[in-house]
Input
Amino acid sequence: MPKAKASSKIRDEEGNKNVGADLSYNEAHTALQLALSALQATDLDVEAMTGLYRQARAYLDRCEAVLAHVEQEVMLWQEGDMAVVTFKELT
Output
């Protein structure tokens, strides 16, 4: 029986990696905020809390991926001017 749980856990983790993969930054950020709010509820059992945490992490990963992509685009755009400016320097 432990093997079934292990394979189920791997499947859940792979499924959570795909959560939010097609969302915009704003959609992923809103979903992240909702998941974090739900995590603050005091009536959650451990399994529900674990699932919400994994979803929140997937939404956070999506937000970070979108921001990294934007940073890369800004750096490439700035290369045309022979000056590389990172996204962090612009903010």
